[in-house]
Amino acid sequence: MRVAMDANALMMPVEAGVRVFDELDRVLDDYDAVVPETVLAELEKLGAGSGEEATAASVAADLADRCETVETEESYADDALYALAVDGDADAVVTNDGPLRERLLDAGVPVIHLRGRNQMTITRP
Q1: pLDDT above 90 (res 97)
Q2: Do residues 38 and 75 lie in contact, with contact meaning Cβ atoms separated by under 8 Å?
Q3: What region, left, alpha or beta, does residue 120 occupy, with left being phi > 0 and alpha being psi -120 to 50 degrees?
Q4: Listed residue (28, 30, 21) closest to 67, CA to CA
Q5: What is the pLDDT of residue 50?
Q6: Model pTM?
Q7: DSSP string, 11-43
């Protein structure tokens, strides 16, 4: 299974205390994680600030090294994740973004997200 990672998913270790890749290992048998370049750009922008969000973005950027970086034509991260999934380049998307999650589910794309405080689950359309 190929899963696309959103910025907020990669920021979970700091923001929610969730070891995102350990949780993905638990939820999925076998997977390859990908991250669109637009997500990396978003993390870089957030990481340039200060405070907890900047720290979370810096940690997320380091975690993104565990993912394959992919190019998309979209300049907005949510659109890039949606396009990857709808075009079949990703089988699911890891995100906690409510509007993106609904958009993906409406398009028939499974979403992996945080359930409760520290566990991830898959919601299928």
Answers
A1: yes
A2: yes
A3: beta
A4: 21
A5: 86
A6: 0.93
A7: THHHHT---HHHHHHHH-SS-EEEEEHHHHHHH
CA–CA dist 43, 72 (Å, integer)? 16
Could you tell me if 114 and 12 are in contact, meaning their C-beta atoms sit under 8 angstroms apart? yes
SS3 3: strand
CB 7 within 8 A of CB 38: no
CA-CA distance, 28 to 20, in Å (whole number)? 12
Model confidence at 59, in pLDDT bands (50, 70, 90)?
Answer: very high
Rg of the chain (C-alpha set): 13
Length of the chain: 125
Question: Is the model's pLDDT at 83 over the cut of 90?
Answer: yes
Q: Does 116 score more than 90 pLDDT?
A: no
